[in-house]
Design brief:
Largest sheet: none
Strand content: under 5%
Number of helices: 12
Number of domains: 2
Radius of gyration: 19 Å
Number of strands: 0
Structural class: mainly alpha
Distance between the termini: 37 Å
Order of helices and strands: HHHHHHHHHHHH
């Protein structure tokens, strides 16, 4: 029970965000005519946050398979780079590996990639619990939102911005908790430059590729700096 309390404490910020965001998603789904089974299925099997919000528009707009595939790639391309960075960390995770890969959201990634595993807890068990708890928060929030949407009228304008708000919150928390700001500065600067060059519809993939290249090349210099400081 002690390790459950520890994981609950670690994931509490994500819980508060995911419940609110999940409620928003459930409300949007219900207001567009998709009932509880749809909400549960999307939150359990897709579990993609902003892509689920976009998925509502794709469903209601009659998007083709090709349009859906392109939109999914554009929105979730960053997860390719998340996965690459976690290859070594999850290499010996055993049967839990497929789920750990599937459940690697932005917020879960921020918790498991730090390596800040509480003493006395197996790292893979900790990563699995963090991933599972975060997933459950999202599903629970979605169910709550769908149920609320059936009994209370809501104006859903602007609800999809909640994902951006949570991402900013996680970014600020990581900035405050980590003394190394080079990755964060690189991410913001490169994204802003790519946004100006490629535009709002096409900046995501170029920015992620460029960020990965810069951080990969800069990793050696950062490691040398750490050794020199030690």
């Amino acid at each position: 029970m002690q390790w459950i309390k520890i994981v609950l404490k670690k994931t509490f910020p994500v819980m508060t965000g995911y419940l609110v965001l999940g409620i928003g998603f459930g409300i949007v789904m219900e207001n567009n005519g998709y009932d509880l089974p749809w909400v549960i299925a999307m939150s359990v099997f897709i579990y993609a946050g902003s892509m689920q919000y976009l998925g509502v528009s794709l469903l209601t707009g009659g998007a083709s398979i090709i349009q859906t595939a392109i939109a999914t790639l554009m929105v979730n391309a960053r997860h390719l780079f998340y996965g690459i960075s976690m290859v070594d960390k999850y290499s010996d995770a055993g049967k839990a590996k497929p789920y750990l890969i599937f459940a690697l959201t932005d917020e879960t990634y921020s918790l498991v990639c730090t390596g800040d595993v509480p003493e006395g807890i197996d790292s893979h068990k900790y990563n699995l619990l963090v991933s599972l708890f975060d997933h459950c928060y999202w599903v629970l929030g979605s169910i709550m939102g769908c149920l609320l949407g059936t009994v209370l009228p809501f104006d859903t304008t602007g609800i999809d911005f909640s994902m951006t708000a949570l991402f900013v919150t996680v970014f600020v928390q990581q900035w405050m908790d980590n003394k190394k700001h080079f990755p964060a500065i690189t991410g913001v600067a490169v994204t802003a430059i790519c946004l100006m060059i490629f535009g709002a519809d096409n900046f995501l993939i170029p920015s992620m590729v460029l960020i990965t290249v810069i951080l990969s090349l800069g990793r050696k210099f950062l490691e040398k700096g750490e050794k020199a400081d030690a």
